[in-house]
Amino acid sequence: MGPRFGTSGLRGLATELVGSVSALYATAFSRMLLERGRAARGATVLIGRDLRASSSEIAAICMAALDRAGMVPVDCGGLPTPALALYGRQLGAASLMITGSHIPADRNGIKFYLPDGEINKADEQAITELAEQLSADADAIKVERGRGADHSCEATDLYIQRYETLLPKSNLQGLKIGLYQHSSVARDILTTILEGHGAHVVPIGRSEVFIPVDTEAISAATRERLAAWAKEYAFDAIVSTDADADRPLIADETGTPLRGDLLGLICARLLEARLIATPVTSNSGIEAASGIEVVRTRVGSPYVIAAMTEAVAVGKQRVMGFEANGGVMLGSDFSFGGASLSALPTRDCVLPIIATLHMAVEAKTPLSAIIAMHRLPVALSGRIENYPFDRSDALVAYLKASKANVSHLFGQIGRVTGTDDMDGLRLTFEGGRILHIRPSGNAPELRCYVEADDRDAAEHLLAQGLAVLNS
Questions:
Q1: Which of 91, 185, 279, 463 is the most buried (most CB within 10 A)?
Q2: Cα–Cα distances in Å, from 45 out to 29, 130, 351, 370, 432?
Q3: pLDDT tens-place string over residues 43-73
């Protein structure tokens, strides 16, 4: 199976994208912009990328394709996806982000942005159909390496400026923060932002070889490294991101990572949000803990953004969204203290990092206590890698077909009292335990999410669920 749109962007093997596929989809995107009047010939299209080995070459191929299509490519270099989106909104320019996000180095992807933000599912379908129509056009699939004017400094500086005045300059004074740099495209930007707020930042784990970090399913090896660093350096917190820095990772003073949906809830409280849009995979306790309107969606930023857009369209204010991976989206403008944040309807990692550290400072408590303060159900997630798309789709279809099929596979875990098939299949067992099975839209993986009253019960349920799925 070739490259396809997943939960956020086009994804596929790097060997496929370094070639005619990237040229084809960049051309199809240009054609969509022109046909819909979202850009005219000669319009600027921004290009950004993450730090994996194949990204520079894919970016060059896309720039050449954009140039042939009558657009003017502008090279924004290696920078966070939200920084590229922010710069695009300021310039009123469409953009392409070359990134595979958290998936392994042998895979990559392209995220597409209109001048006002991320494309939606209907746009993805339109680009796919145009790519099919253009696939026989020799010019559309020509593999050339192009270039564009360098705007990397302008785009990066705008993103840093967005957050430099959000908190008082010395708000994080006294905090010793470990910054797990690995191959994150935000590793230097985060240092600048956190030090600008007074934190003492210690860089750790920098790598020139690409390391995939999934903030929603943190590997055992990464957890061990975080715990060891926390003990060695006596950090107040360790922060990091995924490859393209639209998802945060925050670990407490023991090196234990905080759940991404908890980070989103912290942002909602800091910004005094009035409506939250979040996928069905986010913690089921969000509604009770936030005390505000919560709209549940399918998994993927396009669905969350669509829900925010609908809310704003009917007059809702202070609208935000977040996902279980920690990425926070602002559907409307917000004010906080004397600062203001303009709408940025794409996942961002910096806001949840700053908000969480700020809460710890204000509460004068370690991050581990922040987790306990929110009293959410214990939620864990795991995944089975190298699980073919067709196999996972067939499994979910089998489970949706009948209650008997669900009981056949999961009856040993307990009696199922409720199901939800909004995205994958979410099972509620007697006693309130939750197990959610969902094929990944980004890579051949099967995801498993669980919730229970305490950690031991959640870990046991996750182990049971993965064992059933592996069998």
A1: 185
A2: 10, 18, 26, 42, 49
A3: 999 999 999 999 999 999 999 999 999 999 9
Q: What is the DSSP string of 185-247?
A: TTHHHHHHHHHHTT-EEEEEEE-SS-----SSS--HHHHHHHHHHHHHHT-SEEEEE-TTSSS
Q: How confident is the model at residue 1 (pLDDT cuts 50, 70, 90)?
A: low
- Residues annotated catalytic, as ranges: 101
DSSP per residue over 393-429, as a string? HHHHHHHHH-HHHHHHHHTTT--EEEEE-SSSEEEEE
Backbone dihedral angles phi then psi of residue 9, each to the nearest 5 degrees: 95, 170
Token output for 243 = 């490859």
CATH architecture of the domain 378-470 equals: 2-Layer Sandwich (3.30)
Rounded distance between C-alpha atoms, residue 219 and residue 206, angstroms: 17
Domain with CATH 3.30.310.50 in the chain: 378-470
Q: Which fold has domain 176-374?
A: Alpha-D-Glucose-1,6-Bisphosphate; Chain A, domain 3 (3.40.120)
Separation CA 381–CA 316 (nearest Å): 32
